[in-house]
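Marked as duplicate of an earlier ticket. Keeping the data here for the record.
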Amino acid sequence: MAELATIVEQLSKLTVIETADLVKQLEAAWGVSAAAPVAAAAAAGGGAAAAPAEVKTAFDVILISVPADKKISVIKAVREIKTGLGLAEAKALVEGAPKPVLEGAPKAETDAAKKKLEEAGAKVEIK
């Protein structure tokens, strides 16, 4: 048991960077990952004590990329989604991808916008 106390004392003297390096070395040496057991233990042990997760109600639609041959149809779709945009603004948004098309919108609206943009040929992500 005295050996364990010595090990604990030595580990307590490590800096954060040294501790992170030690974890990486132990993971490599033993072929394990320290992240998975910690997450599983937190999920299992947290139970009723864990704070309830907040339900996300506002989402962003991000235009990731647009193929060159689909640019015009995507610009039209962007103008349908964001009715206040002029042609030049919609074109700049599409050409500047990745950019948000909608921000802080409800789930139904973001799903409809994503569907419309994907049908026009764009690659879209909801965050």
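See parent ticket for discussion. The CA atoms of residues 74 and 120 lie 5 Å apart.
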